[in-house]
Write a structure and sequence with these properties.
With 362 residues, the protein is an alpha+beta fold. The protein has 2 domains: 3-136, 3-Layer(aba) Sandwich (Creatine Amidinohydrolase, Chain A, domain 1), CATH 3.40.350; 140-351, Creatine Amidinohydrolase. It is 34% helix and 22% strand. The chain has helices at residues 3-10, 32-39, 64-70, 85-96, 110-119, 128-136, 140-160, 170-183, 244-262, 270-283; strands at residues 26-29, 47-51, 55-59, 75-78, 100-103, 123-126, 188-189, 194-197, 216-222, 224-226, 229-230, 233-239, 268-269, 295-296, 307-308, 315-316, 321-324, 327-330, 334-337, 340-344, 349-351. It has a 6-stranded mixed β-sheet with strand order 4-3-2-1-5-6, with helices on both faces. Strands 7-10-11 form a 3-stranded antiparallel β-sheet. Strand 10 (224-226) and strand 11 form a beta hairpin. Helix 7 (140-160) packs across helix 8 (170-183). It is elongated and about 70 Å long.
Length: 362
């Protein structure tokens, strides 16, 4: 079953908490990543309209020929010269008798919502959850693509490891990661690499700077995008010999990560996974220095909707892919984060990250 068919099947059962009396006749997909998820066709512009029986991909002349050749189970509709895309959408909606329209409330602008409200004469129903729930479940084919991206990223890591020295800057190393990612076949980075060393390693999302890599911990958090799918990996290395507390903190983070991974399975609450890992860090006396969540889902984007955190209300389903990345950050001193990515099954999870996790000392 392709993803347009999955959207079709989900439409009749979708209920919006804010508008429980309304039923979606159709789903409008305008977010670029969601369109890629649904159609497999990459384009920077366009609208996908899906009903229980039909689907239309509305594009302009830049994409029409390529879309006709690539898209299946969907009629490709050309926006004519001098015509706005919303005009073509309006015509399809009228022809199809659509009265209520689901839309991506998390990404649609206020201006677009206003235009649709005035022009389309339909009831607009917040329905991004419908798409997010579908995107949360990865098929085995999806997972194979994510594993391919992960292996490429690991090859990059193995290549940059012997290059690291105190003669290069954090920016130099970040640039090397991006260059080698592209050279090894990645389409792009999945996010800007985090490369922070010495005292700056206490900044979870620190920005690589012009300073030379310093003694102490070096945190490298990076990912690649390949065929639309993202990888995400963090390893913390040490430049020079670590002291006893540094070793203790590293071992605590690793123990916390493994404890969290151990309790992951389809149907587990994200808050429980986070609490399991967090308890290890709290028992070691570092609870106040773990400020973010245990992990987040990823796939076509490096941050997707599901979370395993203190604030999570998510139940993690089988087929979801999430990161496992606890950390301890001592302000102005050092920080440690170790991140793997796991695929959730009915009985546990499959760790798709193969880089070693023992502390590397350079």
């Amino acid at each position: 079953m392709n993803n347009i068919e999955r959207i079709r099947q989900a439409l009749p059962d979708y209920k919006c908490d804010a508008m429980p009396e309304c039923k979606c006749d159709a789903m409008l997909v305008t977010n670029q990543t969601n369109r890629l998820f649904a159609t497999g066709f990459p384009s920077s512009d366009g609208m996908l309209l899906v009903t229980a029986d039909n689907a239309w991909l509305i594009v302009d002349s830049r994409y029409f020929e390529a879309a006709e050749a690539a898209v299946r189970d969907c009629s490709v509709v050309l926006v004519g010269k001098g015509e706005k895309m919303v005009d073509r959408l309006e015509a399809v909606i009228k022809e199809s008798g659509i009265a209520s329209l689901g839309f991506e409330d998390g990404s649609v602008t206020y201006a677009a919502h206003q235009e649709w409200s005035e022009k389309l004469k339909v009831t607009l129903i917040p329905a991004e959850k419908l798409i997010n729930d579908l995107r949360a479940i990865k098929s085995r084919a999806d997972l194979d693509k994510m594993i391919k991206a992960q292996r490429l990223a690991e090859k990059v890591f193995d290549e940059i490891l012997p290059l690291i020295s105190t003669d290069m800057t954090e920016k130099d190393l970040a640039a090397e990661i991006i260059y080698r990612s592209l050279k090894n076949g990645a389409d792009d980075k999945s996010f800007d690499p985090i490369v922070v060393s010495g005292p700056k390693s206490s900044r979870p999302h620190g920005v690589p700077g012009p300073d030379r890599i310093g003694k102490g911990f070096l945190t490298i958090d990076f990912g690649v995008s390949l065929d639309g799918w993202c990888s995400d990996t963090t390893r913390t290395l040490c430049i020079g010999k670590p002291d006893d507390e540094m070793v203790r903190v590293y071992d605590t983070v690793l123990e916390a990560q493994e404890a969290g991974i151990k309790v992951i399975h389809g149907g587990v609450n994200g808050v429980y996974v986070d609490a399991t890992a967090r308890a290890v860090i709290e028992n070691a006396g570092y609870g106040e220095y773990f400020g973010h969540g245990f992990g987040h889902s990823l796939g076509l984007e490096v941050h997707e909707s599901l979370k395993a955190s203190q604030l999570s209300e998510d139940t993690l389903p089988s087929g979801a892919v999430i990161s496992a990345e606890p950390g301890i950050y001592l302000p102005g001193r050092f920080g440690v984060r170790i991140e793997d990515v796991v695929y959730i099954t009915d009985t546990g999870c499959e760790n798709i990250t193969k880089l070693p996790k023992s502390l590397v000392i350079l």
